[in-house]
Amino acid sequence: MVFKKKLTAEQFNPEVIMNSGQVFRMKRETKGANGTPDTYSACSGDNDVYFYLNTDTDCWDFVCEEEQWDFWQRYFDFETDYVKYNDLIRKSNDKFLKDALKDSFGMRILRQDLWEVFISYVISQNNNIPKIKKSIQTLCDRYSDGIHFPKPQVLAFIPESELMDGTALGYRADYIIGISKQVVDGTLDIKKISEMEYDEAMNNLLKIKGIGPKVANCIMLYGFHFMESYPIDTWMKKIISEDYSSYSKEDYLKYINCSYSGFQGYVQQLQFYHKRNK
After folding, report:
1. Alpha carbon of 45 to those of 140, 148, 219, 276: distances in Å?
2. What is the chain's Cα-based Rg?
3. pTM of this prediction?
């Protein structure tokens, strides 16, 4: 079925979202020509969708199964008013962040499938985006239908040597198998953790083998949707040292938490996207 959504360029830009480092399985399927629109796709868990800007109605058309539409509305976080966040940023004195906003119109923080985002960010540690995407697609091709993410019941019982072979997972294969086994035997309940308060959820993530502070913050933001999470990777370290050099790291985080309370993760995505573009 086709579901229509009226969204301005400031409210929704898939090119910005899919290149922001928060998602690995959203892509442009076809490049529009002669007035036809670009077509995009996304997969998350057992759900898949195609979408494009319908130039006749000036609405975004989302094509998916009827029972999946609620998932996709939540996935794209359509209930959150991101323009409100943008207005607060525009009133700030932070030139780098205001430049980042101009460069990142249409950014949104996605609410991704919990299992998929969990394993995706275990794969992401000490890794780059093209390799992460390739590893994830290899897992989907080998252990699912090529489209949907493999289940923990499958990944838990793959020999580590097999999981490492040709996937570029390296040492991360051990973490993936271990986490999958915990989910299967019931000692790890990802949904339950996602429903905890921030500090409790973070502490529970950090107890899991293979999850450090950066990966935990990514899961908290891109899966659990704790908007106060502010992941710091190599790009963010560059931003702090080069674009906010008058701050110590501790003072910089105090500034972010004080000035942009409740949407720090959104600020991080704007900064990350802008810095990589530069």
Report:
1. 11, 6, 15, 28
2. 19
3. 0.93
